[in-house]
Amino acid sequence: MAGKSKAKSIIVRMISTAQTGYFYTTTRIKQGASLSAVKYDPRVKSRVLFVESKKTAKK
Which residues lie in coiled coils (predicted)? Predict the structure, then answer.
């Protein structure tokens, strides 16, 4: 009997560094480095740096 295979990618939340609370969700490979990207934040109407957030426990 074969065991379940584990996912190679995970879903991560990219949070705006402009402290607006705006975020994107995206996927990345498990073994990869943390993501950061410059994307549009509609709350400040400009492009800002988004960084991968720390994982939080589900409630």
Answer: none
Which tokens in the block code for residue 19? 């402290």
Options 2.20.28.120, 3.40.1350.10, 2.60.40.1180, 1.10.3720.10; CATH for 9-52 is: 2.20.28.120
- Quote the tokens at residue 36: 């950061």
- In the chain, the largest separation of any two C-alpha atoms, in whole Å, equals 54
Which pLDDT tens digit goes with each residue over 22-58? 999 999 998 888 999 999 999 999 999 999 987 665 6
Radius of gyration of the chain (CA): 15
| DSSP designation for 14 | E
